[in-house]
TrEMBL record:
Top-rank EC class of the record's enzyme: oxidoreductase
Alphabetical keyword list: Flavoprotein, FMN, Oxidoreductase
InterPro entries: CE1759_FMN_reduct (IPR023932), Flavoprotein-like_sf (IPR029039), FMN_Rdtase-like_dom (IPR005025), NAD(P)H-dep_FMN_reductase (IPR051814)
Pfam families according to UniProt: FMN_red
Domain NADPH-dependent FMN reductase-like: 6-155
NCBIfam families: LLM_duo_CE1759 (TIGR04037)
Entry annotated with the keyword NAD: no
Ranges for region Disordered: 183-206
GO molecular function: oxidoreductase activity
Catalytic activity, EC: 1.-.-.-
UniProt key word Zinc: no
Name listed for the protein in its UniProt record: CE1759 family FMN reductase
Amino acid sequence: MESRSLVVVSAGLGQPSSTRLLADRLASAAADALRDRGVEVAVEVVELRDLARDLADHLVAHATSPALRAALDAVAGADGVVAVTPVFAASYSGLFKSFVDVLDRDALTGVPVVVGATAGTQRHSLVLEHAMRPLFAHLRALVLPTAVFAAPEDWGGGTGGSTDALGGRVDRAAGELAAAVAARPARRPHDPFEDAPSFADLLSGR
């Protein structure tokens, strides 16, 4: 069976977090859709809340902690990415942008990405189009057509209304991600030493 990796980047600050809840729903639906296509999938979560101090240290002192390096490497080796942020000041959060700022500029080139956002009101839903989509387009990612926004009313109990609408958006976005990931060959994790000459070549003078 083929295998792919999905990385979930969640910038939620609370515990529990609606941002993380949306990210998990997208990742779970995408993983199910990939398995339906005969593709095994490993899902890894990058919780930015746990990396806040590491990101600050990196930006100020250029110090990269092992935890931050592992997160950056996970994104750089992902076959698909789910990226979800809370809305702050009508845009993505500063924590989310800080992580994007320290990514390698080529880390997401051509990688399928589903973007999502959460906020306290539906009035912020256009953040996905005026902020999130251009950000990942700048990184040359393959930003998928369906972006998913969730406000408090989307998490209501019962059936019908916005709850069903959110489920439909999640399923559609997850299907797009699964199709894009399955259509691409698996990414090989980048080895920074792959271009280094061998000791045999050095000793032979080549």
